[in-house]
Write a sequence for this structure.
C-alpha cells in the first residue's frame, strides 16, 4: 500500500516513510491510496477478542511489510501494557441507548495515548532497524505534548522537543511534560499562544535546510500513523454493541478532526456506522462549516475544554480531499484561500461531507451543566471535552440506533472545571498520585524561530 499527499504534488511513500516524515513536502497530509476492506465475517470474528488482537487485525493491512506480523504484534502489546484498564477502551452505559467509550486509561489520561504509545514503539523499531535517529518537535495545547513525551522518553533513536504556551496549560498537563527525567526529553515553555507554537513548528518544517539537518519528524495529529491507531477503538466498541449486525453512531469531541476522521476510516473499511457527529465547543469552525459550507477562521476563544480550542482543524483537509473526489489540485487551492481567511466548500463537496458527518456546538454554560447533570443522572464524572460530546449526542441522537460518545480525557486532568461544575475535585489515579511531588525541568524560550532552532541544534547529539 502507498500513501499519497492530499495536495497531489509529493512523492507517494510507504507506511513507514509517511509515518517518519509526518507532513508531505508539498504541505499536504498523507492518506492511503486505497482503503482495505473488512467483510461482515471479518468484523464478526472480532467479538470477544482482546483489544490488542483487534488492533492487530484492523491495522495490519495498512502497515505494509516494513514490520513482520510477529514484530507488529509485539509492538502493539508493548504500547498498551502501561494502560490502567485491562479492556484498554472500556465502554460504559450512560442511558438507554447511549454509551461512553472511556479513552482515558493511558499513562497521560487522554485518548492521545492510544496513538502516541504505539507510534513511540513503531518509530523506535523502524529507526533502530535503519540505524537512523530523528528529532521530534511537537507543538501542544497540553495533551499531545504530554502523550508524546511519555511515549518517547528514554528511547535511543529519538530526541523529543515539545513547545507549549507558557502559563496556558493545566498544572497536570505541565507536570506530565516537565517531570520525566530522561535526557532525550525537552519541554520548552514558549511565549505566546498555542497557535504561535504551532506556527513556529510549521516554520521549522518549511525550512528544508533545518528540517533535513536535524532529521525533523512530526507526531502532531496530522501523522497518518496516529489516525490509524485511533481507528481500532471504533471497531472494538461497535463490535461490543453488536456490529456488524447492528448499526451504531458515534459522537466525537473534536478539535483537529483527527479522532473523528479515524471513525470515518472505520466506516470506509466496512464498519456499519450510521452517523458520525462532530461536537465542538465555542471554537466552532467545523460546526459552522458543516452547517453553512463556509470554512472561515475566527480568533480562538479560550474555553474550559482547551484541547479543542482550535480554529484551523488540520485533519479536515483529509475529509475535503475525499469530498472533492481526491483532487489534490482543488485541495491545494482551498488551502491557499485558507491563508487569506477561509473558503467556501462547493455544493457537491458539502453534500458529500454531510453524507457522513453531523455537527453540534456547546457553550461553556452548557458544558458545566452537562458535567453536573451527568454526575447526577448518569453516574459518570465527565471531563469538559467529554461533556461537550455527551451534550451534543443527547440532543441529536436517533433513539433507534445506539450512540457511543468518546470520553477523550480523564476528569482529573481538568480538576478546576470539573470541581466548578460538580463540587467534586477528581483525584489522580493511584499510579500517578506522586505527580505533584516530582521535580520539574523546563526551558523557557521566546517566540522566535532562530532562537528555537539554535536551542534544538545545541541539544541533539551531533
Ligand atoms: C486532542 C483532544 C481532543 C480533540 O481531538 P482531535 O483529534 O484533535 O479532534 C478532544 N479532547 C481531548 C481531551 C483532547 O486531548
Amino acid at each position: 500500500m502507498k500513501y499519497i499527499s492530499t495536495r497531489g504534488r509529493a512523492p507517494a511513500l510507504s507506511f513507514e516513510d509517511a509515518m517518519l516524515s509526518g507532513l508531505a513536502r508539498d504541505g499536504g497530509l498523507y492518506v492511503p491510496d486505497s482503503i482495505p476492506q473488512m467483510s461482515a465475517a471479518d468484523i464478526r470474528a472480532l467479538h470477544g477478542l482482546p483489544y490488542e488482537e483487534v488492533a492487530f487485525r484492523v491495522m495490519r493491512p495498512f502497515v505494509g511489510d516494513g514490520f513482520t506480523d510477529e514484530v507488529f504484534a509485539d509492538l502493539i502489546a508493548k504500547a498498551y501494557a502501561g494502560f490502567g484498564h485491562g479492556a484498554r477502551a472500556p465502554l460504559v452505559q450512560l442511558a438507554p441507548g447511549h454509551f461512553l467509550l472511556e479513552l482515558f486509561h493511558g499513562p497521560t489520561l487522554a485518548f492521545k495515548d492510544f496513538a502516541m504509545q504505539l507510534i513511540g514503539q513503531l518509530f523506535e523499531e523502524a529507526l533502530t532497524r535503519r540505524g537512523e535517529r530523528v528529532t521530534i518537535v511537537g507543538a501542544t495545547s497540553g495533551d499531545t505534548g504530554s502523550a508524546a513525551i511519555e511515549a518517547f522518553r528514554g528511547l535511543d533513536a529519538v530526541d523529543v522537543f515539545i513547545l507549549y504556551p507558557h502559563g496556558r496549560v493545566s498544572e497536570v498537563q505541565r507536570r506530565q511534560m516537565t517531570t520525566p527525567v530522561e535526557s532525550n526529553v525537552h519541554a520548552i515553555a514558549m511565549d505566546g499562544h498555542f497557535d504561535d507554537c504551532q506556527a513556529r513548528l510549521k516554520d521549522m518544517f518549511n525550512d528544508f535546510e533545518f528540517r533535513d539537518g536535524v532529521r525533523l519528524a512530526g507526531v502532531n495529529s496530522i501523522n497518518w500513523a496516529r489516525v490509524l491507531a485511533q481507528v481500532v477503538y471504533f471497531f472494538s466498541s461497535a463490535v461490543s454493541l453488536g456490529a456488524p449486525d447492528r448499526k451504531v453512531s458515534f459522537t466525537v469531541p473534536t478539535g483537529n478532526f483527527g479522532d473523528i476522521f479515524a471513525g470515518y476510516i472505520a466506516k470506509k473499511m466496512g464498519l456499519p456506522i450510521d452517523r458520525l457527529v462532530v461536537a465542538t465547543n465555542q471554537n466552532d469552525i467545523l460546526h459552522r462549516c458543516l452547517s453553512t459550507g463556509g470554512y472561515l477562521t475566527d480568533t480562538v476563544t479560550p474555553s474550559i475544554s482547551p484541547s479543542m480550542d482550535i480554529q484551523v482543524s488540520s485533519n479536515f483537509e483529509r475529509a475535503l480531499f475525499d469530498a472533492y473526489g481526491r483532487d489534490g489540485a482543488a485541495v491545494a487551492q482551498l488551502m491557499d484561500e485558507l491563508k487569506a481567511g477561509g473558503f467556501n466548500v462547493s455544493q457537491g463537496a458539502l453534500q458529500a461531507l454531510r453524507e457522513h458527518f453531523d455537527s453540534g456546538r456547546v457553550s461553556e454554560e452548557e458544558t458545566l451543566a452537562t458535567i453536573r447533570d451527568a454526575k447526577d443522572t448518569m453516574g459518570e464524572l465527565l471531563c469538559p471535552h467529554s461533556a461537550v460530546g455527551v451534550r451534543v449526542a443527547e440532543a441529536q441522537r436517533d433513539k433507534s440506533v445506539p450512540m457511543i460518545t468518546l470520553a477523550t480525557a480523564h476528569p482529573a486532568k481538568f480538576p478546576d472545571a470539573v470541581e466548578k461544575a460538580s463540587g467534586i475535585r477528581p483525584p489522580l489515579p493511584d499510579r500517578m498520585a506522586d505527580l505533584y511531588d516530582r521535580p520539574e525541568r523546563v526551558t523557557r524560550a521566546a517566540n522566535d524561530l532562530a532562537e528555537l532552532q539554535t536551542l534544538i541544534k545545541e541539544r541533539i547529539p551531533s
